[in-house]
């Protein structure tokens, strides 16, 4: 009988020890996977910083492209003016008037594009996307005005 009692006690003791040991592992696993509000805030802050950095890089790349286009337009406008001066004697008075109007329009469109570029340059990383569409539109208008001015020399 003593042996049976001892066996029951040992079985109960080891069973209880096993339950306690398994319970501790479950608690340890829970604490490892538990996410706190601080963890979420930290990850959200990191994500925001990454997004800001990405937006800034995108803005800088876009600005470089626009600045290069504007320099190209400056160069082409100078070439167009030089061509107009060399052909001034050949142009009819009506053509000269139309060319001058086209050049004035071109100048106005270039000025508008330059203003948009300044606006874009000073825009924050988050707001530049809104201004980008206006910049694209201004460049499109500048390109159309340039084509109209250039059309006076196609023959």
Measured as a percent range, the helix fraction is over 70%
Q: What sort of overall outline do the alpha carbons produce when their principal axes are compared?
A: rod-shaped
Indicate the low-confidence ranges by residue numbers. none
User: Which structural class best describes the helix and strand composition?
Assistant: mainly alpha
Our count of helices gives 4
| Span of the ends, CA to CA | 122 Å
Encode the helix/strand succession as letters.
Answer: HHHH
* DSSP summary, beta strand count: 0
Please name the CATH topology of one domain: Four Helix Bundle (Hemerythrin (Met), subunit A)
Strand coverage percent = under 5%
Q: Averaged pLDDT, please?
A: 80
Indicate the radius of gyration in whole angstroms: 37 Å
The CATH C-level name of one domain is Mainly Alpha
Going by CATH, the architecture of one domain would be Up-down Bundle
User: What does the main sheet amount to?
Assistant: none
Q: What order do the helices and strands come in, and which of them pair?
A:
Layout: H1 2-33, H2 37-86, H3 93-122, H4 128-150
Helix pairs in contact: 2-3, 2-4, 3-4
